[in-house]
Amino acid sequence: MLVPAGTPPAAPVTVDVSFPERVVTAVSWRVPPGPSGLMGWALTSAGAPVIPIQQQTYIVTDNQTSTWPLEDFLDSGNWQVTAYNTGLYDHTVYLTFLLDLPGAADIPASPLPGSGAGFTGTGGSVPVTVPGGGGSGSSTTPADDSPAVAVMVLAALLGQLAGAGGG
After folding, report:
1. Domain spans of the chain?
2. Is the pTM of this model over 0.70?
3. So what's the pLDDT on residue 89?
């Protein structure tokens, strides 16, 4: 997700990263070098904080990556990323949601390779549309919906964000 420069914490940008009903087993994230403490982001659901759980609290980092194993988090697929960037340059946070179909119990040892917007499992894909995606590649077509772990890689571009009316 691209976070535009000059986005204040009092008026953060929110981008919908929803997907079909799935059990989130982990979230991997990466913030490339550059924000220097001027960008913060949080995972939310319908405007309510999820990670971190406190209102108006953000993850503030620079040149770091991590994977957070999750258990008993919401499974509706209703997720958003809320972020601010008080710097002079746009900055990006990359997120990968590791997902199981409802009722599946296997947790992957590591994220599956891939890029772009969509869900990729060992048996195929399930559809997803990135708001304001425009052009080809903004959605994928399912081959099947096997109980394999699905992975969503999100890298929203400024054009997509502007097209979605996110600011």
Report:
1. 2-163
2. no
3. 96
